[in-house]
Each structure stands twice: as structure tokens, then as C-alpha cells.
Design goal:
By secondary structure, the protein is α/β, with parallel strands linked by helices. The protein is built from 18 helices and ten strands. The chain has a six-stranded mixed beta sheet, with helices on both faces. Helix 2 runs parallel beside helix 5 and helix 3 runs antiparallel to helix 5. The longest helix has 54 residues. It is elongated and about 115 Å long. The structure holds adenosine-5'-diphosphate (ADP).
């Protein structure tokens, strides 16, 4: 339970609602505990009818007790409504807070985090694990409180009636505990495994649906379907195993409780015969014992769900413990006046890989357009990633206008740089919203100017709804070259002093490329541009060509 205690941090802001429903629960338990007492009174009144008291008077007593009992049940129902409603809301809020905190944290994690794991695992955190926790908080943890109140109250009141009998009921408690421990040892690894397999299923589905074109063109439907089915089967078999334990647990616990009651009855009949116990007391006692069996049999469920929730929370905490990037506004603000860039002895390697950059020295003058060429994997794109601080160098410094970018805030740094990446990332939104992404509330004329500069205006005009056309997930409803032009327009609208074009014209036809270069000559001239390219036309537009091989600059 210790790790789940960290959940209290999320519960703290809702403590007044929680405290209020705690109070209601206390009242609910008190009402429940009054019922056996009323049962005793009822028995007394009924027995009196059979004895000496005048009939009218006794049945009046029975009537009063019965009415009182009815009142108690109504009160219990009302309190139950109150606690369910208020607690449910508080639990929902706790889980909502948790989801938002988790999402913000995941968003703040460095890209390296995602490069090292499946996206499906992260998605499973936001879906399955949060869902398990939400069920645990509202369905289990909070439902446990009134059960414990009632059980505790019942035991105390049983002691007041007949300590020797109560002792018997209490002796059973360690027995239950032992049973839970044994079962828990089997349930815990099962719960972990189950969630692991669930995450794999999400990962398979998520990856495959994103890879549909490849699946279809390579006609891999059957294999992928089998792979997914095998995964679902694995989950099913684990569920069966888990259900077998659960299914056995509850009846077993109930059986033990029933044996306890029978024992109590046997002892009680002796007590009754010897006059140590009045019949009314016996009725109360048995009603308390019955009240006690309810929480005890619920305990089995609670225990299993706690194990599952523990696993879910442990995974969540693991993600929450990952160090995020520094907050966007930490560090001094970088204001680029010129746009000079300098790499000074920069080395870097991706996790688990050999060096991608080795002691790179490179100076780019303000307003210069340099082309970076070299074979695949030479480290060209990595230069851009480090300049944006998507990764941090292991040695050396990168300076913009003579300022070490390690000391400036991420937000101010990234605002100065526009990137058209090799793999363009577009949103399932309109053309307009995609172009406007990097700049808050641009005017239509600014958006159009950027589209013209990127030579995107022609094709946009031919789209069915022009700038309002939805382009589909990742821009699937556009051609590769059109996607790149949108990405270019987006980068130009951001209007940064530094521009990184990573194979940005790779999808262009030669004529389009020449047109684009001519059109953007002005736009490029005012900026410092890193042009990662192999295309002769683009090379011709550069002031200087730098050649990279195996993480080093070999020629300038
Ligand atoms: P280029 O742009 O010159 O083709 P990159 O800078 O993209 O090359 O990559 C440099 C090297 O780093 C390559 O060997 C590549 O395999 C490796 N690499 C790139 N991205 C990652 C990553 N996220 N994780 C591990 N290795 C990577």
C-alpha cells in the first residue's frame, strides 16, 4: 500500500469534499450499526407479546421499533446517495488532475525518452493505467472506508454484548489476512503481466494502424492480424487465470465467515441455555456478525484491485520520475540580433549508439546560407537537433550570436529557429491552421504571403475548400511535395532569424525546386540558413558548402 500513498498528493486539493463524505460515511455506518440494536429491541418486544404484557401494548412496541427501523433504512439510503455522489465527483476530479499532470509531464519529456520506448507503452499509461487507478479510487479505496467503519463498529458492539463470542469472530481476522497474503502473492505478478501485455496490444494496434499503407502494399494483413490476435489471446489467458483466483477467493472467504457464524451459534446456544445470553442479545449479535461478513467478503475484491492499482501507479510514477526538459522559460531569454551560429568542439551520441558527432567545429556567419552535404547517417540532421536543444551535446558548446545556448530558455531559443524537417509533421486540421501553427493569431494576408513564399499558394487554391481544407492525419490528403511546401510556409510564417531546411526540397520536382529557390531568395537572404541537401539546384543557392562524414566535418 505504501506506494499508493503518493496518490494522497492528488487527493489533497479535494480534502474538504473527501472529509465531508467521510462524515457522511460515518453517519451511514452508524445507521447500519443501529439496525442490529433495533433488531434486539424488536425481539424483546415480540417476546413480550408471547409473555405477560397486554397484547395491545406489546404490538405498539413492535410497531414503534419497526417504524424506527424503516426510518433507519431510509436514512441509510439517503446517506449512501450523498456519499456516492460527492465521493464520485471528488474521485473523478482526482483522476482528471492526474491525467492532466501526466499528459503535461509526458509532453515535457525530452524526445530521447520516446526514442527509447514504444509509443503504445506511453499510450497505455494514459488509457489503461489511469483507468485502473480511477476504478480503484472511486470503486475500491473509497468504498472501503464505510465497510471498515461498519466492521470496526460491529466488532466493538459485539464485544459489548458477549466478549467471549466476539473474540471468536475476531480470531478469524488473522486467518483472512493470511489467505489474502497467499493469494496476493499469486495475483500481483499476474496483474503486472496483464498490464504489460495490454500495453503491447495497444502498441501493436497503434503502430499497425499508422503503418497501414506498408501493411497493404506488402500484403501483410494476415500476419499482422495473427500477431494482434495472439496478443489478445495472451491477455485473455491471463484474465482467465486471474478470474479463477478471484472466483475462488470470494466464496472461500464467505465460507470461512459462515463457518465462523455456525461456531458462534453453537457457542451461543450453550450461553442461551445457561442464561448468560438473552434471546434479544443473540439476535443483535447475529445481526452484527452478518454486518461483518459483508466487508469481509468484499475484502477479497479490494485486495486484488489494490494489487492491480499498485502496478498501474508504479508505472505512472516511473514515467513521472523521468526528468523533463527544463521548463520553457527557465534561463535567460535569447534575442537574436544577427543570427551567427558557432559549433565549438561539439560531440554527441544517441543513447546506446556510437558518436553521431565528434568534436564538430563550425562557424556560420549571420545571413549566410550554408549547404551541409554528406552520406546518410553522417550527422547532418543531428546538427539541427542540437541547435534546437532537442538533445544536449555531451561535450562542446553551441553559440548563437556568441551566447551559449545551454544558458538560454528553451522557449526563446526555439522561437528563433524555423525547421522544415525531413519527415514533415502536419496535423489533421485545415491548411490555414497548419501554416499558422508557429505563430499566434496571424492574419489571413500573412498566411497567404507565407504560402506564396513557399510556392504553396497554387495548389492550395486548387484544393476543394482552399485554406479551409482539412488535410487528414499527418496530411495524408496531400502529396509529399505539397506537405513539404506547407511545412515551409509554416516555417517562413514563424519568421525566425535562423532556418534549418533538412532535405526540404527532396519531394519537389526540379522545376518546382528552382521556382521555390528563386521565390525564397529574399526570404533566405535575410536569415542564417542551414540547408541540408543533395540537390544541385539547392547547392547552387548556398554561399558555402560543408561536407560531413561519420560525425565530422571533412571539408568546407
Ligand atoms: P544524416 O542527417 O546525416 O543522415 P543523422 O544526423 O540523422 O544523419 O544521424 C546520425 C547518426 O545517428 C546515424 O548513424 C543514425 O543512425 C543515428 N541516429 C539518428 N537518430 C537517432 C536516434 N533517435 N537514436 C539513435 N540513433 C540515431
Amino acid at each position: 500500500m505504501s506506494d499508493l500513498r503518493a496518490l494522497l498528493v492528488f487527493a489533497a486539493p479535494h480534502r474538504s469534499a473527501l472529509a465531508f463524505s467521510g462524515l457522511l460515511m460515518l453517519c451511514e455506518s452508524a445507521a447500519a450499526l443501529l439496525v442490529p440494536w433495533a433488531g434486539g429491541l424488536l425481539t424483546e418486544a415480540m417476546l413480550r407479546t408471547a409473555d405477560v404484557t397486554p397484547v395491545g401494548l406489546a404490538s405498539a412496541g413492535v410497531g414503534i421499533v419497526l417504524t424506527g427501523m424503516l426510518g433507519l433504512f431510509a436514512l441509510q439510503a439517503l446517506l449512501k446517495f450523498g456519499t456516492t455522489y460527492i465521493l464520485g465527483n471528488a474521485a473523478d476530479k482526482i483522476v482528471s488532475d492526474l491525467k492532466i499532470r501526466l499528459y503535461d509531464h509526458l509532453q515535457a519529456l525530452p524526445l530521447a525518452y520516446y526514442h527509447q520506448r514504444r509509443l503504445g507503452d506511453t499510450l497505455a499509461l494514459l488509457t489503461n493505467d489511469v483507468y485502473v487507478l480511477s476504478g480503484f479510487i472511486s470503486g475500491t479505496a473509497l468504498a472501503l472506508v464505510p465497510l471498515l467503519f461498519t466492521a470496526g463498529g460491529a466488532v466493538i458492539l459485539m464485544f459489548r454484548i458477549q466478549p467471549s463470542l466476539a473474540l471468536l469472530a475476531v480470531i478469524l481476522i488473522p486467518l483472512f489476512y493470511l489467505l489474502m497474503k497467499i493469494v496476493g502473492r499469486r495475483l500481483r505478478p499476474l496483474a503486472g503481466q496483464l498490464q504489460e501485455e495490454y500495453a503491447t496490444a495497444v502498441a501493436i494496434a497503434q503502430e499497425n494502424l499508422g503503418m497501414l499503407p506498408a501493411i497493404k502494399t506488402f500484403t501483410r494483413e494476415r500476419q499482422e492480424s495473427t500477431r494482434y490476435r495472439d496478443q489478445i489471446d495472451r491477455i485473455f489467458r491471463l484474465n482467465v487465470k486471474q478470474r479463477r483466483i478471484y472466483a475462488a477467493l470470494e466464496p472461500l472467504v464467505q465460507l470461512i465467515a459462515a463457518v465462523g457464524i455456525v461456531l458462534v451459534l453453537a457457542l451461543a446456544s450453550a450461553d442461551l441455555a445457561e442464561g448468560r445470553l438473552a434471546p434479544a442479545q443473540l439476535v443483535s449479535f447475529l445481526l452484527y456478525a452478518a454486518l461483518l461478513t459483508r466487508p469481509v467478503s468484499g475484502l477479497a475484491n479490494v485486495y486484488g484491485q489494490t494489487q492491480t492499482a499498485r502496478g498501474a501507479f508504479a508505472r505512472l510514477q516511473q514515467a513521472m520520475d523521468e526528468p523533463p526538459e527544463p521548463a520553457g522559460d527557465v534561463g535567460s531569454a535569447l534575442t537574436v540580433v544577427k543570427g551567427e551560429i558557432e559549433f565549438r568542439g561539439v560531440s554527441f551520441g544517441y543513447a546506446g549508439r556510437s558518436a553521431a558527432l565528434e568534436r564538430v567545429d563550425l562557424q556560420v556567419a549571420a545571413g549566410e546560407t550554408i549547404a551541409i552535404v554528406g552520406p546518410n547517417g553522417a550527422g547532418k540532421s543531428t546538427l539541427g537537433h542540437l541547435l534546437m536543444r532537442l538533445h544536449e551535446p555531451s561535450a562542446g558548446q553551441i553559440l548563437i550570436d556568441g551566447i551559449d545556448i545551454a544558458s538560454v530558455s528553451l522557449e526563446s531559443l526555439r522561437r528563433q529557429i524555423g525547421v522544415v524537417p525531413q519527415h514533415v509533421l502536419l496535423f489533421n486540421a485545415t491548411v490555414r491552421d497548419n501554416i499558422a501553427y508557429g505563430r499566434p493569431e496571424p492574419s489571413q494576408s500573412e498566411i497567404e504571403a507565407a504560402a506564396v513564399a513557399a510556392r504553396a499558394d497554387d495548389f492550395i487554391a486548387r484544393l476543394p475548400q482552399g485554406y479551409d481544407t482539412l488535410i487528414g492525419d499527418r496530411g495524408v490528403r496531400l502529396s509529399g511535395g505539397q506537405q513539404q511546401r506547407l511545412a515551409l510556409a509554416r516555417a517562413l510564417l514563424k519568421d525566425p532569424p535562423i532556418l534549418i531546411l533538412d532535405e526540404a526540397t527532396a519531394m519537389f520536382d526540379p522545376q518546382g525546386e528552382v521556382e521555390y529557390l528563386q521565390a525564397s531568395r529574399d526570404a533566405l537572404k535575410r536569415r542564417t540558413v542551414l540547408l541540408i541537401t543533395h540537390r544541385p539546384a539547392s547547392l547552387a543557392a548556398a554561399d558555402r558548402i560543408v561536407r560531413m562524414e561519420q560525425g565530422r566535418i571533412v571539408e568546407s
